[in-house]
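ok trying this again, last paste got cut off
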Amino acid sequence: MSTPLPRLSPLEVSERAACMCRHGDVCSSFAPGHSLHLIQARLASATPSDWVDALVETTDAATGSLTVRTLDGDSHTLWNAAGAALETQPGSPVALHRRYHVLAVGGTRFNVAPL
């Protein structure tokens, strides 16, 4: 007869779950600021009138945050775990989709979390 394996409760399992980007690996979460989900990218593409042009004001690669200012003068502080702060520098032109929280840096799209 074998000994039954110990079972973990769902609470213990969810407490141990962490996004892989915290460990220097590819991001495994679609939460705000993490990986861009295909549906999020398609929704942003399907609503072109919600994109606004902006310029990068500040970047902080250590924290993953950046501040962009739209051409209307609105300032947005954003966070991204996938490296948006590394891909930009102050003065760079970007586009921000405010409804679906997508930042376009050239041809690359990032899921951003507003701070």
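PB: full thing came through this time. The helical segments are 10-16, 38-46, 84-87.
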